[in-house]
Amino acid sequence: MAIIASVALLITEHRSHRLDSLRATLSVLVDPLKYLVDLPTVLIEQTTESVRSYSTLKKENAQLRDEQFIDKTRLLKFESLEKENIRLRALLENSFKLGEQLLIAELLSINTAPYENIVVVNKGTRFGVHPQQPVLDANGVVGQVFRALPFSSEIMLITDPNHAIPVQVNRNGLLTIAVGSGQLNRLNLPFLPNNADIRPGDLLITSGLGGTFPSGYPVAIVDDFTPMSNKPFVNITATPKAMLDRNRELLIVWSDSSPVSLTTPLSEKPTESPPHDQPAGTGTVGNSLPAASGSARNTPAGINRDDKSAGSGLTHKTPVAEQADTDNDE
Amino acid sequence: MMNSYAGFGRIFLTIVMAMCLRITPWPGFLSGINPDWVLLALIYWAIAVPERVGIFHAWIIGLLTDVLTGRVFGQYALAYSLIIYLCLIMHKRLRQFPLPQQSLFIFSCLLFSQILLFWLKNIQHPTQLHASFWLPVFTGTFCWPLLYTALRRVRLSRRTK
């Protein structure tokens, strides 16, 4: 009986996603254990936080303030660059993906599978986490949500042997795929020909192909390698930028993963600032969706939505569409 | 017998503790050799109180372990129910065995479970095998005498009440 039942379960799970709800229900029973096991780490962390001396805190504070100052100055430039980018893309009738919503999730220090690079974090479907969401940390891409349960979710790191991430070389835009090696400090780039223009120290960023990862996030840095002339492909390795074995805080990202089409800008357009809306609207009005063109003309609504529309483009599409309809009627 | 109702609490608690041990992060290389505590605890209870631990219990606990460790559904459920079936059949003989001989049996049980897990994993997608994949089998065998005495104490402490 038990054998038949388990085999049936194995087959159904392998073939379909019908058992996800059962897993979610059972996970409610089991998830408290994960938090229980994580408890000592949290407690130790809290005690060390609370017994930190005044001078250390002061030093850390000053350091953080400096860092923030530098980051802010960089962001000043970033803003103008972003606007320029939007303007240029509008000229090309290309849509620009803006605004990704982030959720900070904390790693639960538990070890579920010793030989797989899968970690568990403390945010689940209750926070709207869903499978295949990209996960980042402050330095780069960490992985993607593999399975979302109500109170926790499993994240497959980019170094998992079953994980591959589409990347491009930041220097020249060369596209390739980085495959996990199973070791936390190594990625493989197995699909590059021998004469590929890639050098040690090159930064690999996400290319945005495949739709899972938003483009432009740093992934890894190419290691030293020696081209072998007797083989068609070189086996290049790279070191992930993200601190896969050290960070406790991770960022789960919401981004509109619908494919970017060249002629129909998405409704994320309104997040542009008003002065640059005009060229965008006029440039695309002929062959774009009513939603996009309407919202581009309607600048006040665009500004109001600025903070909200980040990430959850889908939910905010409806008011935009209504706006557009009324515009067209007039 | 005195241990007709209250025994469940103890068994339940030890299983929960075993599950906690299963997912505890050990530093460095120790995490790779963390044995399957849940299976060891289940085997002990199946041998000690076979009227209390059945195949169905093993199956349910296996299912929970599947969820806990994020495996494909039914993987541990299958392994656990098969091994507990074996233990239930042989429990009278196993009780007579001295500890080293018992450990040998435990070794084969753990090995069987590990082979089964690897086989199921390989069906889903081809995987390469690390030599360290088999280490939990050995550590589990070495932990058995310890676990046996500990759980025996747990079981007998309530019987003396």
TrEMBL record, chain A:
<dbReference type="InterPro" id="IPR042175">
    <property type="entry name" value="Cell/Rod_MreC_2"/>
</dbReference>
<keyword id="KW-0133">Cell shape</keyword>
<comment type="similarity">
    <text>Belongs to the MreC family.</text>
</comment>
<dbReference type="InterPro" id="IPR007221">
    <property type="entry name" value="MreC"/>
</dbReference>
<protein>
    <recommendedName>
        <fullName>Cell shape-determining protein MreC</fullName>
    </recommendedName>
</protein>
<dbReference type="GO" id="GO:0008360">
    <property type="term" value="P:regulation of cell shape"/>
</dbReference>
<dbReference type="GO" id="GO:0005886">
    <property type="term" value="C:plasma membrane"/>
</dbReference>
<dbReference type="InterPro" id="IPR042177">
    <property type="entry name" value="Cell/Rod_1"/>
</dbReference>
<feature type="region of interest" description="Disordered">
    <location>
        <begin position="261"/>
        <end position="330"/>
    </location>
</feature>
<dbReference type="Pfam" id="PF04085">
    <property type="entry name" value="MreC"/>
</dbReference>
<feature type="domain" description="Rod shape-determining protein MreC beta-barrel core">
    <location>
        <begin position="111"/>
        <end position="254"/>
    </location>
</feature>
<dbReference type="InterPro" id="IPR055342">
    <property type="entry name" value="MreC_beta-barrel_core"/>
</dbReference>
Automatic annotation (TrEMBL), chain B:
<dbReference type="GO" id="GO:0008360">
    <property type="term" value="P:regulation of cell shape"/>
</dbReference>
<keyword id="KW-1003">Cell membrane</keyword>
<dbReference type="InterPro" id="IPR026034">
    <property type="entry name" value="MreD_proteobac"/>
</dbReference>
<dbReference type="InterPro" id="IPR007227">
    <property type="entry name" value="Cell_shape_determining_MreD"/>
</dbReference>
<dbReference type="Pfam" id="PF04093">
    <property type="entry name" value="MreD"/>
</dbReference>
<keyword id="KW-1133">Transmembrane helix</keyword>
<dbReference type="GO" id="GO:0005886">
    <property type="term" value="C:plasma membrane"/>
</dbReference>
<keyword id="KW-0472">Membrane</keyword>
<keyword id="KW-0812">Transmembrane</keyword>
<keyword id="KW-0133">Cell shape</keyword>
<comment type="similarity">
    <text>Belongs to the MreD family.</text>
</comment>
<keyword id="KW-0997">Cell inner membrane</keyword>
<feature type="transmembrane region" description="Helical">
    <location>
        <begin position="103"/>
        <end position="120"/>
    </location>
</feature>
<protein>
    <recommendedName>
        <fullName>Rod shape-determining protein MreD</fullName>
    </recommendedName>
</protein>
<feature type="transmembrane region" description="Helical">
    <location>
        <begin position="132"/>
        <end position="151"/>
    </location>
</feature>
<feature type="transmembrane region" description="Helical">
    <location>
        <begin position="73"/>
        <end position="91"/>
    </location>
</feature>
<feature type="transmembrane region" description="Helical">
    <location>
        <begin position="6"/>
        <end position="25"/>
    </location>
</feature>
<feature type="transmembrane region" description="Helical">
    <location>
        <begin position="37"/>
        <end position="61"/>
    </location>
</feature>
<comment type="function">
    <text>Involved in formation of the rod shape of the cell. May also contribute to regulation of formation of penicillin-binding proteins.</text>
</comment>
